[in-house]
Design the sequence.
């Protein structure tokens, strides 16, 4: 991302920057990068278009700033859980039976999937999800930012948990298992309309979220603890 070489911006400048990021998020999510004009974003933020250049240099800089913001917000919610999982993985498990080992790592995995389901179901994620989906289909430099600063770490943790539960599965085998689990989480965002209609739900509130989390926990349990 291009670095800002301008002098320190006053407090009100931070509010302007936030407003531009908010407006740009909605515009980019709705129409895509190429179709959005800087004028449209500035109007959405209620600021002078020249301030985009002041804060971000250009459209590409603003687009990357949007993804920096997304990563920052997601990290605030998931980092405490990833630290817990790292601590679990750091503990010695030599004295545990195979069943006890699986249960230890399964519990850690469920902590991660619970918070991921909660974020996925959050309506505040709607615009972010559209942007992330666009990057999945047609990746730009923003995808590298997303992957390096967020996705890679979470996928690595989940893969290590699978390998511990599966007695050292290869990276490929464990990685494929992780992607199938991740698919169960993401469907509640990317197939949200179909899911709501199929289940006759108006939205995903606390009750519905609890149902989803319980279902995914049971699915994961069935994958790893069958026969124990």
Sequence:
């Amino acid at each position: 991302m291009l670095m800002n070489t301008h002098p320190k911006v006053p407090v009100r400048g931070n509010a302007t920057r936030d407003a531009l990021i908010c407006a740009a998020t909605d515009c980019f999510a709705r129409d895509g990068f190429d179709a959005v004009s800087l004028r449209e974003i500035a109007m959405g933020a209620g600021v002078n278009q020249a301030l985009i250049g002041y804060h971000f240099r250009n459209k590409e800089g603003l687009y990357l700033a949007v993804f920096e913001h997304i990563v920052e917000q997601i990290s605030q919610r998931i980092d405490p859980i990833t630290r817990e999982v790292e601590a679990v993985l750091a503990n010695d498990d030599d004295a545990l039976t195979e069943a006890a080992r699986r249960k230890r790592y399964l519990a850690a995995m469920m902590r991660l999937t619970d918070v991921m389901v909660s974020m996925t179901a959050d309506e505040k994620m709607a615009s972010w999800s559209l942007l992330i989906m666009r990057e999945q289909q047609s990746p730009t430099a923003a995808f590298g930012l997303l992957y390096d600063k967020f996705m890679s770490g979470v996928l690595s943790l989940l893969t290590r948990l699978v390998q511990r539960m599966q007695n050292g599965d290869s990276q490929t085998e464990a990685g494929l298992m992780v992607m199938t689990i991740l698919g169960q989480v993401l469907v509640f965002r990317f197939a949200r309309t179909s899911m709501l209609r199929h289940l006759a739900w108006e939205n995903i509130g606390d009750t519905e979220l609890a149902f989803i989390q319980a279902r995914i926990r049971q699915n994961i349990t069935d994958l790893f603890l069958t026969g124990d």
